[in-house]
UniProtKB/TrEMBL annotation:
Residues 1-114 form the Protein-arginine deiminase (PAD) N-terminal domain. It comes from Gopherus evgoodei (Goodes thornscrub tortoise). This is Protein-arginine deiminase type-2. One of its GO terms (cellular component) is nucleus. Residues 116-274 form the Protein-arginine deiminase (PAD) central domain. The gene is PADI2.
């Protein structure tokens, strides 16, 4: 804020000035003195407070002008008002100058003052109320004791009849659109009209103009209209002064998320401009500033309760849809099917009418690691005393010493810039598709840890198969009931005797173990927090690994109900031994396992249940602004 300005008085004349409540005007009494003056007195109306300041010494000037001070070049007057004027120029300050011989004043100078209250207000204490003139509204801090207003990126589409996102246009079509915005109120009080030569301007810095949009509520009581006044091409807006005690309501929307070039903070200012003459441009004599932080892009982990499950309907996944519907019904949440007219044949497209963000690299090559099976998030964790109450983002990358595939820099930079879910980079380039959801997921539990991490394990699979072989089930056959396969009869004995497959899966296990060590370190886990699910892989012609049978770790988690890819494992006494083993690991923990056949509709296309679904979950109860990055 500009809270102090200098006014140059002129003897023999009276000036006019506006004094904004809560600010001070410095008046130069020495420079305004006539020749021969050696002392002065000050007389003022009751609405003005006057201090006589010489160096660090300050005295309050009585209203009746009964005290004189020696004239000194170091002396200034500090003028302030704490009550708004009812009429322009209804308060005044008069300075009388005296010569050496005393007697009546030899001349005088003065100023007529108009007191005006101006406060640009936001919800700086984050309680849902736009309080008046919060002293901390112009700054922003993290943590449970922090402060500062919050702004959402308005990146959904509340009106189904428009083609773009809500933040792409400069219009408000519905009340739902307003709910995505933050309120800002300009409170003013003063005379019916501003004195001549003054105006109020609302503005944003050039650097913030493409990051925030502001709408003004016109005719708030009769047929409301929302006028776009700031953002993108609009840097300022002249605010109409209405007189008396008034509140002008604005709605503010975020236009983009934090990124490597944008820390997330935006400021909006209101200035009172003054013009001394028509020939000289107006200059600000008072500025009030509010600061918003744009809410970060936040992922929701499997430990949060599901609300809606999204899945696409395509020509070959009818049975898959039927099984997912059954699972969703058990989990007591809603199924949202994206039909062909919406998904346009893309079975991986998930979730209509949802806010989204895109990042496009200028020069980097986009790979499958930029798909969002390669973007997961852990449950909340504490690591060496450092809390991550919203969990940590997990992304797949290449081995540190290799020049393999990596998520593009623009996406990685975006994820790191959100600050509240500090990313962990894993090694996933060893996989054909290269996604972290091919070897790790999380399930909720009601114990102190509140979750377990599930990892694909070739070691666990070979251990199970050897146990079954020793029990006399070496000829148990895999892939029974799997229609459309050209696979020859595969038994436990054949799998265990295939030396090339053994060596390939030893390599895969080393890759998984590398990630296991990273996850234990970065998530603060121990071995008892990890459950190994049997898996086997085969190496393709490019030396990358793909699942040999449906990869059970690539599941959908709906609270205690798990939708697990049906593995079509060896059948022993009428049951799939892989399914039975997984049930024995998870169901004693209170989890319910449903095995879903996704072979023809997803597995053959190198995806599984998790890849073909998306879950809208209840948000964190923890407030993201309480995070200390």
């Amino acid at each position: 804020m500009l809270r102090d300005r200098t006014l140059r008085l002129h003897y023999g004349s009276r000036m006019e000035a506006v004094c904004v409540l809560g600010t001070q005007i410095s008046a130069d009494v020495y420079g305004a003195a006539p020749a021969g003056a050696v002392s002065f007195s000050v007389k003022h109306t009751a609405g003005v407070q006057v201090e006589v300041v010489t160096d660090d010494q300050s005295q309050v000037a009585p209203a009746n002008g009964g005290k004189q001070w020696p004239l000194d070049h170091r002396t200034i007057l500090k003028l302030s008002m704490n009550k708004a004027s009812t009429e322009a120029n209804d308060d005044k300050v008069t300075v009388n100058y005296y010569g050496e011989n005393g007697g009546p004043p030899i001349d005088q100078a003065g100023v007529f003052l108009t007191g005006i209250g101006i406060s640009l207000d936001v919800d700086a204490d984050r309680d849902g109320v736009v309080e008046k003139n919060n002293p901390r509204k112009g700054t922003w801090t993290w943590g449970p004791d922090g402060h500062g207003a919050i702004l959402l990126v308005n990146c959904d589409k509340d009106n189904p009849f428009i083609s773009g996102l809500d933040c792409d246009d400069e219009k408000i079509f519905s009340k739902e659109d307003l709910r995505d915005m933050s309120r800002m109120i300009l409170r003013t009080e003063g005379p019916p009209r501003l004195p001549a030569g003054y105006e109020m301007v609302l503005y944003v810095p050039m650097s913030d103009s493409d990051k925030v949009g502001v709408f003004y509520v016109e005719n708030p009581f009769f047929g409301q209209r929302y006028i776009h006044v700031l953002g993108r091409r609009k840097l300022y807006h002249v605010v109409k002064y209405t007189g008396g005690s008034a509140e002008l309501e604005f709605f503010v929307e975020g236009l983009c998320f934090p990124d490597d070039t944008f820390p997330g903070l935006v400021s909006i200012n209101i200035s009172l401009l003054e013009s001394l003459t028509e020939e000289i441009p107006r200059a600000p004599i008072f500025t009030d500033t509010v600061v918003f932080r744009v809410a970060p892009w936040i992922m929701t982990p499997n430990t949060l309760a599901p609300v809606n499950v999204f899945v696409c309907s395509v020509k070959d996944n009818y049975l898959f849809l039927k099984e997912v519907k059954s699972l969703v019904s058990k989990a007591n949440c809603n199924l949202k099917v994206c039909y062909g007219y919406m998904n346009r044949g893309d079975r991986w497209m998930q979730g209509p009418d949802f806010g989204y963000v895109t990042r496009e690299p200028l020069f980097e090559v986009v790979t499958s690691l930029d798909s969002f099976g390669n973007l997961e998030v852990s449950p909340p964790v504490t690591v060496n005393g450092k809390a991550y109450p919203l969990g940590r983002i997990l992304i797949g990358s290449s081995f540190p010493t290799s020049a393999g595939r990596r998520m593009t820099k623009v996406v990685r930079d975006f994820l790191y810039a959100q600050q509240v879910q500090s990313p962990v980079e894993l090694y996933s380039d060893w996989l054909t598709v290269g996604h972290v959801d091919e070897f790790v997921t999380f399930v909720p539990l009601p114990d102190k840890k509140q979750f377990r991490m599930l990892m694909a394990s070739t070691l666990a699979c070979y251990k199970l198969f050897r146990e079954k072989q020793k029990e006399g089930h070496g000829e148990a056959t895999m892939f029974k009931g799997y229609s459309g396969t050209d696979t020859k009869r595969v038994t436990i004995n054949k799998v265990l005797s295939n030396e090339l497959m053994v060596q390939e899966n030893q390599y895969v296990q080393r890759c998984i173990d590398w990630n296991r060590d990273i996850l234990k370190k970065e998530l603060g886990l121990t071995e008892k927090d990890i459950i190994d699910l049997p898996a086997l892989f085969k190496i393709d012609k490019m030396g990358k690994a793909m699942a040999y049978f449906p990869n059970m770790v690539n599941m959908i988690v709906l609270s205690r109900d798990l939708g697990i890819p049906k593995p079509f494992g060896p059948i022993i006494e009428g049951d799939c031994c892989l399914e039975a083993h997984v049930r024995s690991l998870l169901e004693p923990l209170g989890l319910m396992c449903s095995f879903i056949d996704d072979i023809s509709s997803y597995h053959k296309m190198l995806g599984e249940v998790h890849c073909g679904t998306n879950v809208h979950r209840k948000p964190f109860s923890f407030k993201w602004w309480h995070v200390i990055p």
